[in-house]
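Note to self: keep these together.
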Amino acid sequence: MKLEFDSTDEELKFHRQILATFPISVIVLQVEDIRDPLSFSYVWSNKRFHEYTGLTEDEISGMGYDFFMKIIHPGDFHIIYKALKKFKHDMTFVYGGLMRLRNTEKSYHWFLGSISVMDKKANKPWRISVILGETNGLEDLNKQLFQIYKDNSAISNAERINSLTMREKDIVKLIAGGLTDNAIADELHISQSTVKTHRHNIIQKLRVSNKAAIAQFATENGLD
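Structure:
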């Protein structure tokens, strides 16, 4: 039996009903430069995403790149970066992965997501769709996914840690201890500019977003 609709509005209503049935969040982003995540801007998201995050359209639109910092777990930013690198070479690619998103209670839950190019402009990625399936409540799936993620993360994190020099590991420990750049410079008898250079290299090697994420990575992986 093939479904037939009397009008476009009726078909659109049917599609919206399907979208509302499944525990998924949908986000559409616009990209000015695929190489620069800071050029990303928010376009649209569905009702379930707003309910999960507790954020309105206007609130998200006004955040800019801080939107990602507020919602995505710092340890999961590498998923976005990996997808962007793929899109530079293949816009038909669909990137999937596990990531944690923060809810209205400021706690993180796991989502199984896919990221793909929705529209192109001047033969470059322009709009990107992010579809996130909730795993909360699916206990068996949660256990399986968490074990897979744990195994893969352990291997990936070990590789990242091994890429650090001894000096960089020292600085990671001091950052995790809450020291400022000035205090780290005094502790290690180096200049503040050298500390900043090391911190930049550490962020690149650990594939994290900022100093707070370095501290969190260190705590989670026994580097503090």
